[in-house]
Sequence to fold (408 residues):
Amino acid sequence: MHPRIRNCPRAVVWRTRGLLLVCAVAVAALSACGKPPEKPPPAPLDVTTLTVEPRDVPVSGVYVAQTQSSQAVNIQARVSGFLDQRVYTEGAFVKKGQVLFRMDPKPFQVQVDAAAAALQRNQAALQVATANLNRTKPLAQKNALSQKDLDDAQGQYEQSAAAVAQSQAQLESAKLDLSYTVISSPVDGVSSYAAVADGTYVSPQNSQLTTVSVLSPMWVNFSLSENEFQRIENDIKAGRLRLPADRRMIVEIEQVDGSVFPFTGRITFADPSYNPQTGTFLIRATVDNPKGVLRPNQYVRARLKGGVRPDAILVPQRAVQQSGQGHFVWLVDKQGLAEQRPVVVGDWYQDNWFINEGLQPGEQLVVDGGQRLSPGAKVVVKAREAAKSAAAASAAHAPVAAASAASR
Fold:
């Protein structure tokens, strides 16, 4: 103890010790205020991940289409006359050669009879001319008749022969007109309504009687926009899309109720001309329709199948986020930390995106839980989602080169 403190009274000593204790506590309090207490590290966040696995994914393109009869025949009257009777049921199926209408045949039968009589008269004249020529020739050779007599007989024979040929042609024409009074269907198909009522005089101005539409095969028409066509070509050049070796796409028809038509078709025509009014190219597919399920002018969906995206990366849509700089995803690195990665997305279907750029095989993609992440955050993988197989993604929608497939 200091000598001065030893000689001081006890009360003074206790007051000095108390003052020193208060000062020490004050200094400790000031030190504690200047240095905040350390916070515990944040708890790792639970996420669900998916291993990035490139694979060949079958893709298809779905387009709004309209059916069209492959052969819509206008049934017209070939001769003028009164329409006697409609002998078919409107809207029913008709067979090739089935009678649809009958016209009044009496005027045409009269013409046939007149042409037959004229033919008979000319044939008789030809017989007389032939006999006269046969008598004239030997006499002319003996100079019993002049050369003029022979020429006249020869000319008469040739005129009679020409008259017979003309009469035969007129008779055939009259018979043909008579046959036109029975109007039959030239094809198998479904009939339309009768445009002319029974008893109406049919002339070239109202010769259209009805229409018969062939139902099998059926045409399915749809359009491909110019922008989409160019994007398809770019994907093919970049190797993001591969078409069949023969470039023949399979066309599947989806009906209005969502059911799939049991017969598939092929693209048979692509209009080489660009339509400036609609900005599209016309594509036509042909599909068998033996039971007549598809009818002309129906709206359906045409799904083009056969294209493949080689080594494609397909990820769930919920794994992709978007900011002002574009799309991005979250990854889990080898240290278990969150990493933000910008990506370039391609086409999509249902809950999946095609990723064109930004991901590498084997990386761990965050599928669920990415909304709470920040760069460098510690994460714990609570579950790993299995990647969908290529077969499961076979219905993935990605436009394919329909026009290119048909035109090349």
